[in-house]
Amino acid sequence: MGWLEKQCHFASWSWNILGIAFALSAHLGHQVDHGEEVSPWLVCLALILWEIAVPMALLIEAVVKHAL
Questions:
Q1: pLDDT one-digit tens code per residue, 28-55
Q2: 29 lies in a domain?
Q3: How many domains does the chain have?
Q4: What's this model's pTM, rounded to 2 decimal places?
Q5: I need a surface site. Which of 7, 22, 34, 49 has the fewest CB within 10 A?
Q6: Comparing C-alpha atoms, which of 27, 21, 26 is closest to residue 53?
Q7: Nearest-CA neighbor of 25 among 1, 53, 61, 63?
Q8: Cα dihedral sign, 65-66-67-68
């Protein structure tokens, strides 16, 4: 199974979005620590990705814990 085929699963999408949200939040924190100006678009994108990823991760956790 190739890399692209593995990305078709819901769990893979969930973890990828969560990883991007964490990376973007870390980048924004780094910018704030160094006194750089933070783009409001990046803050909004980080929040949107976080709000999408967390329910997806909780859904996967519930299915794995109770259904499997």
A1: 999 999 999 999 999 999 999 999 999 9
A2: no
A3: 1
A4: 0.79
A5: 34
A6: 21
A7: 53
A8: positive
